[in-house]
Design brief:
This protein is of the alpha+beta class. The chain has 2 domains: 77 residues, Signal transduction histidine kinase, dimerisation/phosphotransfer (DHp) domain (Helix Hairpins); 150 residues, Histidine kinase-like ATPase, C-terminal domain (Heat Shock Protein 90, 2-Layer Sandwich), CATH 3.30.565. 50% of the residues lie in helices and 18% in strands. It is built from 6 helices and 7 strands; from the N terminus they run H-H-E-H-E-E-H-E-E-H-E-E-H. It has a 5-stranded mixed beta sheet, covered by helices on one side. Strand 4 and strand 5 form a beta hairpin. Helix 2 packs parallel to helix 5 and helix 3 packs across helix 4. It is globular and about 60 Å long. The two termini are 39 Å apart. The relative contact order is 0.12.
Length: 237
Amino acid sequence: MVDAVQSRIQRETRFASDVSHELRSPVTALAAAIEVLQARRDELSERNQQAFDIIATQVRRFDRTVLDLLELSRLDAGAGTSNEETIDLAKFVQQVATRHGFIDVNFTSTLDSRDEIVLDRRRIERIVLNLLENARDHAGGATAILVTGDQNQLIISIEDQGVGVAQSERDRIFERFARGTSSRNSTGSGLGLAIVQEHARALHGKAWVETSGSGGARFMVSIARKSPFDTHTSQLS
């Protein structure tokens, strides 16, 4: 029975991956067509402009959903694989925020500037970017980024200025396609926080949400600390 269940899970995972790949090409073509038509939007009547805007919004939403599904399929297929390197975590998190247009978000770190950590840069970027976009799309924008840590773990926290997340929803919002009360009418895919949780688990940590001091949400991700010395010692052994 265990083998049968495992086989079914694998089939469903492959199916989701195959469907996502098949959808990628037509969605990309639709998105390209929307960009071309956008330049001539002013030539349309007001009613047709409204129709065009709806189509453009839904195509972009569809495109984002397909990309997120592809990423989750890759995580399901090999979430344990990592491309680790030595980085200054606090500096890197700040660079991610700046590079993606979140330069105005207040940034604080309690880590030593000489504290280098072995991590997968790609996973960290996806975690930070997804949390910042989640705050922008559902909670009026992020207000603060905080990077802290001790000898065992590192924590990335992102606060927003929304209404917070109800206690009854705090576990469920990290499930795939789940939406909190405040995001029911948003255009997101419902997969962003699930992707954050999967990357956190791959880094031997987890994601959760609390209430910030201002009453909004504070999304937090813990990551197991691994220093360059630890990696070198492991390779020698």
